[in-house]
Structure formats: structure tokens, C-alpha cells
């Protein structure tokens, strides 16, 4: 069964500068320097992301939609799935070295990072979907109503509660406002590949 998650159901990991709800969604203004990362390559730990999280159950999927309107290095938004402070996954679109790229950071003690450019996505509606089935989170994304594309298959094994929801960060600047248009919980994907 598919259901819309009310914005009021979530709790922020870190309060944004401003949050406004309206008929067209949620507008979130990120703090300058906000980010989520652990150790790898940069030797720092950042846990200042703005993630609006609620309970995420096994054998379900989270979908978050937002309008892609980034301007500065590392502006980012998408989904955040949290097991604990050292185990989490963020996935969505990030502006890196001048181009919008679809990617994910998977963190289990230390972070890794993958990106793939998505030219032509700017100004459009992006949906990021995380499907938790068995021991894996399968992340897919699309722009408008185009076909889903696979972003990442990552381990998701938890002994306790898992939370998930929309997130945004602005590591290099003030003034990033992300317009989230929907947050839904749906049944998980039927399989990893079409036809499964």
C-alpha cells in the first residue's frame, strides 16, 4: 500500500535555517557548512545534514521528490536512510565540479561516494527511491516521468530501528533552499532487475 508521509511525521537530525510548508510542498533552507561524511579521504566527520526522518520498515520503499535548483559546489538533496551515527546512506543529486550528478554515499564507519552526471536534469522534478528488501537497499532515481535508473545497491542490515526521509545539505554556502514536493512510502521493488 502506498501512503503519503506528512511532513509533520519527521524529526530533523539538525535544524535547518528555515522550514516552510505550503500547498506545493516543503521548502527547506540549509545552513552553510551542513554535510554528512565520515573520514574517508578528507579525514573529517561531518554530521550536520538536514534530514527529516521517520520510521522506515523492512520490505518497504521510500520515495522523495524535489525540484532540482542548485547553484554552488556540493549543493545536494535526496533521501537519507539512517541506522545509527556511523551507519547511514544518503542518495540523490549533488552539484559537483560544475555539473549535476546522481549519486550516493554509503557509510559503515567510513564513507564512500559515487557520482554519475545527469545533464539536462536542472530545473526539473527529481524522484529518489530507496527500496529495502532482504539485506539490501536498492536506490533508483528518475527525472519527471522518465524511466527509473539504478543508482546503487547497498547493504542495509540493522539490529534496531531504521529511519529515513528527505535530506539536504549546503557544504559551501548559505542560501540554498530546496523545494520538496512529496514524501511517500510504497511497497518495495519486486526485484533488482526488470522482469525479476
UniProtKB/TrEMBL annotation:
<dbReference type="Pfam" id="PF07081">
    <property type="entry name" value="DUF1349"/>
</dbReference>
<protein>
    <submittedName>
        <fullName>DUF1349 domain-containing protein</fullName>
    </submittedName>
</protein>
<dbReference type="InterPro" id="IPR009784">
    <property type="entry name" value="DUF1349"/>
</dbReference>
<dbReference type="InterPro" id="IPR013320">
    <property type="entry name" value="ConA-like_dom_sf"/>
</dbReference>
